[in-house]
Amino acid sequence: xxAASHPEKNQNLNLRVGISIxxxxxxxxxxxxxxxxxxxxxxxxxxxxxSGLSVLTHGSHGNTDLTVLGSLVAADMxxxxxxxxxxxxxxxxxxxxxxxxxxxxxxxxxxxxxxxFVQVSFETPIGWxxxxxxxxxxxxxxxxxxxxxxxxxxxxGLDDEKLNDAVGDALGSLWSGS
Length: 178
What we know:
Layout: E1 13-14, E2 20-21, H1 23-39, E3 42-49, E4 54-59, H2 66-86, E5 95-99, E6 103-109, E7 114-121, H3 126-145, H4 160-176
Antiparallel strand pairs: 1-2, 3-4, 3-7, 5-6, 6-7
């Protein structure tokens, strides 16, 4: 796992969007991203702020320029948000998916200031990847909004009980029309 601006031990990571990620928060996010990579399974994950600054990466990105990728991810999400607002479809935790020949790419909001780019094999079930990505994004948002010294008290991770609840909620919303 690497980051364009990995915080040194006991130092905050100050992002261009005006927030700071404290070491305890960064560590919790790293653990969550590692779990997402294994459970999904994802080939590559990029966490960036909404200005496009790379916060951390996990997996192989080949020769991809992470500065360019972060900027494109941020621009894509900004455009998609505005399309959703213009059509009355905006909601929190927007998710964009693009299917390619060999991979599917997801871009998702991870709270107000962070974006998650996840690349998975075309063999990965899209619904499974979407569920894991959405849950990860919600947990990242929770980490960022929690006081740094309380992060270790959060119930984090992609355990089966949480995922079963998420599936049940999704199915319930299908039947209720919400």
